[in-house]
Write a structure and sequence with these properties.
17% strand; 10 helices; homodimer; two-stranded antiparallel sheet; alpha/beta
């Protein structure tokens, strides 16, 4: 746990900030930072031999995975303003959501690196919101990483993704105003799931008929939406959600500023960072950067569900970045 | 205006029902029924020479269009339970939405045809919700039409489209419960717009930066979402919206039952009736049916925005169906 001062880039203020971090792996091994989606935390994988529960990227990371804590030192943080152990910037005014950018998260990561005396990362790896942070890191702190792996994220939020997140935030804000924030968070998460998963997956899993009940019709997909909504609403509070959701929409990286070598992973399909957008980013990055396209039946969440595929993606990325 | 008894297919009850219809065009010309999305009404196009405002399909239909009221008799209805002049089935119980299917709308159309002594249509043409109705017509009343043109619709709602509509209905139901139904309808419509329009269109029109204001950030796409939400909320009431939205999810046509020759139009892309689903329907319909794929930059709403394209689609369909 680090107590430090963190300057919000867009807000301009320096906010006192507690940053919860975790570093796992043998002394002297190269340090790799790994960051997941807004609901991920600093536990990327279980510490070997401890019997602790799986981390959010277990399988891809963890003992025997591509990011093996016996070979690499895995560094991660709980996102600033997230549901974990890090603190959130104070609200600038009542009802106004702090202007926290993915770049602000890179400052938090750098503060932890300073604290741990880690000068330079072997790689910063991020997926979804963490991918936006990893790309921001490659722009703002290029000298502090040898490479970046950016999965399911791009230089900006495209307006369709922003539109669906705007609706999610309004659902939560409306529910909060009427004192029903759990239900609002659950419904917003239900909506988010339609962007994290693919038509193909939904069609395979939930194609049954609606059931007529006394209180109205219920469709098979509703159990899934409600489950994910409930789990999310138990962990997140509205302020965290509003801040991190908006933070995704504040991603704004000029590709010309990216100086660390980046490998982009476009998942096909992906409603959050569609392949056309990741390809556009790759073109604008210019020479010295790579793009990998990965077919997934899950959609944006493919980095979580397609463990074998992403084990290979990471193994090949780490092997290549070892040769630099 | 027709006062008649309409039996709800799924509900099983016979409900007294007023059906508002419109028939435009010269006596003796072949009758074509045309039905649009849930917010369309019986005014497909303006009556020539009257100076009345445009109908919902003006350009594609109307004087000089493919569906010209000087050449065809254009029949349409306000959807049962819709915001127009037709009535709605009574709610089976407080808070429960009536089980109105697209097939129920075909019964309403048949009742109007009986009333007008129209034995058989030259074609039934429908897009979006109207497309679901046109397909149901080709299954349930095949003997009453020579052909059907089904645009942006399929035999079932796929679970991703259902999921987004479930969220829309919950937004409206929650807002209604707290006495704020206009705002709920507007937000539900804002969400619906993200399924009616394409990423490409949003990216072209709304890629500007968010503006920092005293009450928080505002993104360019929000003006668009709010405008469409407001216009919709002024016209629709929650009961209409809940019933027609759910009706889309009750579409359930066994392709083997479709006996009138159908031409399917898949728009690419279309989040409501994706091309993969329309192709699947085409395969399952078997011989004697056609599929046309139309590229559109707008998405599902392409049948409204791409006037030239759909003028050609309709002209070629009407010419071909004339040769049967």
């Amino acid at each position: 746990m680090l107590e430090d001062g963190l300057a919000l880039q867009m807000g301009g203020r320096v906010a006192p900030c507690r940053i919860a971090w975790r570093l796992l792996g043998p002394d002297g091994a190269p340090v790799v930072a790994a960051l997941g989606g807004i609901s991920a935390d600093r536990r990327v994988c279980a510490a070997p031999g401890t019997g602790e529960p799986d981390g959010w990227w277990q399988g891809v990371a963890g003992l025997g995975g591509a990011l093996d804590p016996e070979r690499w030192r895995i560094l991660s943080i709980d996102f600033v303003a997230g549901p974990g152990g890090s603190s959130a910037p104070a609200q600038p005014a009542s009802g106004v959501v702090p202007l926290l950018t993915p770049g602000d998260q890179t400052n938090a990561l750098c503060a932890v690196m300073d604290h741990l005396d880690v000068g330079r990362l072997h790689a910063v790896i991020g997926a979804s919101y963490g991918g936006a942070v990893a790309l921001a890191f490659a722009a703002d702190h290029a000298e502090r990483t040898a490479s970046a792996l950016v999965i399911g994220a791009a230089h900006r939020s495209h307006p369709m993704a922003t539109a669906v997140r705007v609706v999610q935030r309004r659902i939560v804000a409306d529910a909060r105003a009427r004192g029903d924030e759990r239900e609002g968070l659950a419904l917003a998460r239900a909506l988010a799931m339609t962007t994290y998963r693919s038509q193909e997956e939904f069609n395979r899993r939930f194609s049954g008929h609606g059931a007529v009940r006394a209180d109205g019709l219920r469709f098979p997909v509703e159990d899934y939406l409600d489950h994910h909504g409930r789990v999310f609403a138990e962990r997140f509070d509205p302020a965290s959600f509003l801040c991190l959701s908006q933070s995704m929409d504040l991603q704004d990286i000029d590709p010309a500023r990216v100086r660390a070598p980046v490998t982009l992973v476009a998942m096909v399909p992906d409603a959050i960072a569609p392949a056309w957008q990741v390809r556009e980013l790759h073109e604008r990055l210019g020479r010295g950067h790579r793009i990998v396209e990965v077919a997934t039946s899950a959609g944006h969440d493919g980095f979580l569900t397609d463990v074998e595929t992403f084990r290979e993606v990471l193994a090949s990325f780490l092997a290549a970045s070892g040769n630099r």
